[in-house]
Design brief:
alpha+beta, 60s Ribosomal Protein L30, Chain: A, 6-stranded mixed beta sheet, 2 helices, globular
């Protein structure tokens, strides 16, 4: 098992175990607006997945937490542009929740490791 603490207190940004990546992403800049926060969150998520030996094309499951479920259509537009064709689509749920002050979105995913020699860091 390998953990990627990401400078977070008491938690890891990602954990790799048993050929799977478990990761959480948020906007590290906490910018204003759901479109900016979604873009920044997905950029951070993609970087995490790459560093852990996976990628958005290896996503299995995603849960998107929104501080205001009314933001779902705007978030969805950014998500759909980012995720690409249906061959990349994970099982996904969106949930309205209370998030830390200023944060509008948080995404939790499970992804498979890339199928290439040396990619498994577990």
């Amino acid at each position: 098992m390998k953990r990627f603490p990401e400078g977070l207190s008491g938690r890891s940004g990602a954990v790799v175990s048993g050929g799977l990546v478990y990761a959480v992403a948020f906007d590290p800049l906490c910018e204003a607006g759901i479109v900016r926060q979604t873009s920044n969150t997905l950029r951070y998520l993609e970087d995490l997945l790459t560093r852990t030996g996976s990628g958005k094309d290896r996503l299995i499951q995603a849960t998107v937490y929104l501080s205001d479920i009314a933001d779902k259509p705007a978030m969805d537009a950014v998500w759909c542009a980012w995720i690409g064709g249906e061959e990349n689509w994970p099982q996904r749920a969106c949930v309205g929740v209370d998030l830390d002050s200023g944060y509008l979105i948080e995404i939790v995913v499970v992804a498979a490791m890339a199928d290439r020699p040396g990619a498994d860091v577990s």
